[in-house]
Amino acid sequence: MSGLIRSFVATANSAGTQFPLNNLPCGVFSDEKPPRCGMAIGDSILDVEALEAWGFLQFGGTLQTSDWTAFMALGPEAWSRLRRDVTALLAEGRENQDEVRPFLCPQEGAVLHMPFRVAEYTDFYASRHHATNVGTMFRGAENALPPNWMHMPIGYNGRASSVVISGTDVRRPWGQVKGPDESAPRFAPSARFDIELELGAVVGLASDHPLSVAEADAAIFGYVLLNDWSARDIQAWEYQPLGPFQAKATATSISPWIVMSGALAPFRCDTPARGVPLPDHLRDAGPMLFDIDLEVSLAPQGKAGTVITRTNYSEMYYSAAQQLAHHTTCGCPMRTGDLLGSGTISGPQKENRGSLLELSWGGKEPLTLDTGEPRSFIEDGDRLTLRGAATGDGYCVGFGSCTGRVLPAVKDPYARNET
């Protein structure tokens, strides 16, 4: 694994930064100027929209469209060239550094926006540890995994319209719920609101035919942190026979920075050993996962946060490339800007579980926060924050954070003037 690539931006060389020159994640930011494309470098944001307008970068005007969607559609060759070109512009020892410095904007005070237009959203159920934990809770250990689980990545079509950027407050949802001792369902706010720690794969290259795993891997522009907010009590009543619907439609939060696949290449690793061979069209085409450390913290309103779980993306059973390849097998077209959620990322130990449903074992084993407060599920005012980074030789490639605060349910969801 190569070491730190040094930049003339001093903060990009510091031990604590998530944004060295090795990373160059893509986002959209605004300050006194309107939203535009930028790349994080140290404590700054490089204004690539202005760089292209001035001729330092040449990508057919796609960097001047206020988000990354048009650029993503150019494909892997352009993605690699952008990383090379920007690395050369920001490299330590570069001559005429003063030509580039005016295009560096401070991250502090900048507002971050949705980095691409989400075309469609699909969420998966691809961690064996998570699926086993959930299945054990509801069906017993002997029937934890459904018969199809070891043969293909299980998923459902979610709502692109409810994907929101990190920092967006999330309102506790109403829905139809029914307890085991209730004779009929009732319409009420969710009392078992939860998070799911995930990684989201951003599809850059559109397709209209089945993709091999290798082709799918090449079509992924990059990755974001993703929180699949989940109303467990609504889900428990509605999910049979067609799976999640309203329980997952409230919001899906993503981090504002897309870490490009090229930045993660040094951290590739293999999927776990498989006792059941996959069909040929889903078999691994080399190392398909990444060694990315992940954590979630929970902070009650006005109080410090507690890290409630730590895990690693390498624990997944199916990679994003396998998920994308499976998604296309029926001929389903994929669009630039499609977002694929990995599914909850859980590891083998209790402290590695990626949802409160697992961490509290369905509410039977509440957590104790550092503040002394118990938690089985999210309470109003709680802020959940996801973080992730891959660690190299003297540097790390980070995603920033993905955060959201839960607001109380409205008193009447049909009262249009209620805030």
Automatic annotation (TrEMBL):
Q: Which organism is it from?
A: Roseobacter ponti
- EC no. given is 3.7.1.2
Taxonomic classification: Bacteria, Pseudomonadati, Pseudomonadota, Alphaproteobacteria, Rhodobacterales
Biological processes, Gene Ontology terms: homogentisate catabolic process; L-phenylalanine catabolic process; L-tyrosine catabolic process
User: Which NCBIfam families does the UniProt record give?
Assistant: fum_ac_acetase
What is the superkingdom listed in this entry's lineage?
Bacteria
Give this protein's Gene Ontology molecular function annotations.
fumarylacetoacetase activity; metal ion binding
Q: Which residues form the active site?
A: H130 (proton acceptor)
Q: Which UniProt keywords apply?
A: Calcium, Hydrolase, Magnesium, Metal-binding, Phenylalanine catabolism, Tyrosine catabolism
**Annotated Fumarylacetoacetase-like C-terminal domain residues:** 121-406
Which Pfam families does the record associate with it? FAA_hydrolase (PF01557), FAA_hydrolase_N (PF09298)
Q: Where does Mg(2+) bind?
A: D228, K248, T252
Q: How would you classify this enzyme at the top EC level? A: hydrolase
Residues bound to substrate: Y125, R139, Q235, Y239, T344
| The protein's name | fumarylacetoacetase
Record: residues binding Ca(2+) = D123, E196, E198, D228
Tell me if Calcium is a UniProt keyword of this record.
yes
Q: What is its cofactor?
A: Ca(2+); Mg(2+)
Q: In which pathway does it act?
A: Amino-acid degradation; L-phenylalanine degradation; acetoacetate and fumarate from L-phenylalanine: step 6/6
